[in-house]
Amino acid sequence: HICTMSSRLQKLAPLFNTALPALFGLGGLGYGAYESVYTVEGGHKAIMFSRLSGVGDTVLGEGLHFRVPWLQYPVIFDVRAKPTRITSPTGTKDLQTVSISLRVLSRPMASQLPDVF
Hints:
The relative contact order is 0.14. 32% of the residues lie in helices and 42% in strands. The model has no long low-confidence stretch (mean pLDDT 87). The strands form three sheets. Strands 3-2-5 form a three-stranded antiparallel sheet, with no helix packed on it. It has a two-stranded antiparallel ribbon with strand order 1-4. A two-stranded antiparallel sheet has the order 6-7. The protein is built from two helices and seven strands, in the order αβββββββα. By secondary structure, the chain is an alpha+beta fold.
């Protein structure tokens, strides 16, 4: 049994010598393609940071975008309006304490995102 098994493996050796590098090459190519795209969700904006030139001036909207995998990476911001409640206890003329609250909706200006980062 051992002799027949080793002869079978010797017959398969040329297949492994060509198939394994091709399989690793396809895997590396697939990984590179996967890492070169990213998605900006609805209500978000992105700017691109490059290791060579720094923060880019372009603000990218929602959708599928491309990047150079090691050289660039996106910085994604949430630009939806967010409520903030500001509460302040104050006094009246007759010395009673009244709590006043103010609800403020705020969001970043999309055109200024490169300056924010």
